[in-house]
Design goal:
Largest sheet: 14 strands, mixed
Strand content: 35-45%
Number of domains: 4
Number of strands: 22
Oligomer: single chain
Radius of gyration: 21 Å
Structural class: alpha+beta
Order of helices and strands: EEEEHEEEEEHEEHEEHEEEEEHEEEE
């Protein structure tokens, strides 16, 4: 395991007894918790809040993480880090007119001292008017992206907008044989979470989306989403239905550390039960010292129309 602090490899100069990394998607940032055995060695580097650190193990790279807190513990130091600077958590009110998604991503990322990128999302989408109400930049972007069937990933100094359909269509990084009743596996199906359809109603338009794989007549009607015409309403309906229905099934696996496992990568599950099929990694925790991982995945939904 390599520990790189402010672009300097300090692995040989510190003693690490614990290193837990959290790799997540959605309106959350990656995080890490490291415990240093010999506090004097670590503090000799004069670490400060906001300094950058990254860990590399077997090809897995956490990307830049920012020091949030340094906590002394009887000769040891526990250090908490996140992929987002503390300044990014500030809430504010704002309004935006005629901005594209590309422009909104760049504005919010620069507010947080970060870069922006889009994958599988149309950056040219233009919004006549957007209102930000006492929200942090990540919370505001997550709310907008959810309508587009996309999620926010904050890592490596970037705020990334990633389309869920795009992620689902990428090649699987792993194919795993799983027994849902076996040790280390937890499979949950939320029976009433999945909707057959969702309708957007605004003063200017009405449109619906349907999940062709769902037979139960459970619908939701949203009247709180501004849609200026039927095309926009239909796009929002599809995006919101996708983001809702993918949460209806989840699976958590306890496994050996695998550097291929990162948030929003696809995993194919081979199982004779209900759990077989395509899944997306939603969040995971890597224990770098014990080389163990806990991986939570959500079912891919490819039946939205």
């Amino acid at each position: 395991m390599q520990l790189i602090y402010e672009n300097v490899d300090i692995t040989a100069q510190v003693d690490i007894v614990s290193a837990l990394n959290r790799d997540v998607a959605g309106c959350r940032c990656d995080g890490m918790e490291i415990v240093f055995e010999d506090g004097g060695k670590w503090m000799g580097w004069k670490p400060a809040e906001g300094d950058r650190l990254q860990v590399v193990l077997d090809g897995y790279n956490t990307g830049d993480l920012f020091i949030n807190t340094i906590l002394p513990e009887e000769g040891r130091y526990r250090v908490f880090l996140s992929s987002m600077p503390k300044m990014a958590g500030g809430r504010r009110n704002a309004s935006y007119e005629g901005k594209t998604l590309n422009e909104m991503m760049a504005l919010c990322a620069s507010e947080c001292g970060m870069r922006s990128a889009l994958y599988g999302v149309d950056g040219g989408l233009r919004y006549p008017y957007l209102l930000r109400e006492n929200e942090s930049a990540p919370a505001f972007l997550s709310r907008i992206l959810e309508r587009e069937g996309a999620t926010l990933k904050i890592s490596g100094g970037e705020m990334k907008a990633i389309g869920v359909e795009y992620a689902q269509k990428r090649e699987a990084v792993k194919s795993l044989e799983v027994k849902t009743d076996g040790p280390g596996c937890r499979y949950i199906r939320h029976e009433r979470r999945r909707l057959q359809g969702l309708t957007i109603v605004s003063p200017y338009a009405r449109a619906s989306a349907v999940d062709r794989a769902e037979k139960r007549l459970i619908w939701d009607v949203r009247t709180d989403i501004p849609a200026e015409n039927a095309a926009v309403a239909g796009r929002y309906a599809r995006g919101l239905l996708l983001m809702n229905n993918r949460k209806a099934e989840e699976m958590t696996l306890q496994m050996e550390f695998d550097p291929a496992m990162t948030a929003l990568e696809r995993v194919d599950i081979l199982s004779t039960g209900d759990a077989g099929g395509r899944w997306l990694v939603e969040d995971l925790e890597h224990d770098f010292i014990n080389r163990k991982s806990r991986v939570k995945m959500l079912r891919c939904v490819e039946s939205i129309w």
